[in-house]
Input
Amino acid sequence: MFKTERMDAILDILREKKHVTVNYLAEHVYASNVTIRRELKKMEELGLVIRSYGGVTLRESENRFVPLVVREHNSSSIKDKIARQAVDLITEGSTIFMDGSSTVLRMVNFLHERQNITVITNSLRAAAMLCEKRITVYCTGGLLVPEAIVCVGSYSENLIQSVTADLAFFSSQGLSADGKISDFSENETHQRQLMLQHAQKKYFLCDSSKLGKTFLFTVCHISQIDGILSDVDAMAWLKSVDGAKA
Output
């Protein structure tokens, strides 16, 4: 089992059990106690778990940053489904913004050189993968955030503001019942806002786990975008919540 896969498996167990022992994890992810303790130490440093005598507990707070290496392996099949919907919206010759989210990153797997597109992204991971596919890509540059593998800051913002894209694809951590899209990262939120301002059409990639959640920084309201791409009918969910309030 790869390190990221083991980490993902541990998180899945903790979401279900809340608190487990090292022995329990070792038995269920087929690894030694030494390996599990080493993995848990790393996860605690990332702010994902709380270790205690005799076991480990999932850190419950939603308002924390989760590294890309963890996010991109969470709900991968659902993210692939959403990514395919997004790619279907791209026409030949389009210029597109792609943010640094793990869901948008999955789109790269379904893009190909023959589409003759140009991508502008602040994600170093996406830029590298697009280069391998021989797709024209502009990386915004700027200050690198190691955990997210994205560029932020004024240099990055200047490039985004200097261009206009046909489409912008972005994700974020939450969609509230009143239609606000929000995130915990101030820098990435600002990057997304600029991409939306400089794109003709905007699409939010949102898996069902994000519904009903609110974070510190508001990216935009759904009235400011052209569509929500999800594994569920997000608009129907919003209407049902609004109806329940009424």
